[in-house]
Amino acid sequence: MKYFFILFILFTSSLNAQNLLKFDKRNVQCEDKWIAYQIDKDSTYTFGFIYVDSQAGLTLNYEGKFKIDNSGRFNRIESETKKEIGFMKVRLQPNRTAIAEIPESKFKELNIEKVPSWLKSYQTDESSVDRLYRWGYMYNGWNEYEKALTFLEKADKLDTKFKGLQTELAFSYNALGKFDKAELSLKKAIAENPKDCYTYKELAYTYTKLVNFEKVTETYDIMTKICSDQNFIQETAYNLAYQYFKTRDKVKFKKWKTETEKWSKSENQYTKNLNEMETKLN
Question: Which residues belong to the signal peptide in this entry (predicted)?
Fold first, then answer.
């Protein structure tokens, strides 16, 4: 009976913690949030504040550890070597490790502020086009396209002609399947810079997804005349070949397979894939 009682207490304590901390977030979803990592072997939680440094990127301001008692109270653990709490900045790489947002109701127990005073030095020019663009660019790089748009669309309202903005917007739109919006953004970008090969590559991709292969071909022809980066040209030809592979159009597949191969001096992943496709078609 005694052992059962002990197990019951442990089980109840575990449920308490689960209810208070929901480990359902990734680090790239927690900018300007207090977070906790999964429980350690000694029943402690590591916690800190995640923010974005414009130079270093995603960063954790590590602030220590805490335990949750049976009543659900968060008890901060002081450093073993000295009474004051230590701080440490850790550069983060986006990953899928599940972390939890710390409820605001627990901030007082941990002796933390909702917005740390030191954060102000990192929150400069938050409403400027440049900062909004850079944050959108970062979130696109982390595959957080919806989040990227929250910055990029604000930037668009301030300066629609800001360098690189329309192409970055199109990247988000393409990733989210909003191809009509991507097309509009890319046309704006080309109007400002008619020789930007990356923009044409994105436009060709958009037309591919819109199943407008005639427009893809037109864009490809422009790219062959203006682009110095042959990888973009090859990628565009490959995407068309792949579309014709899916529709089992052997004649057009062969044509675009040949076009793809023109832009590489040796075998690469594109040509390997196309050879496999050709074998399947035959």
Answer: 1-17
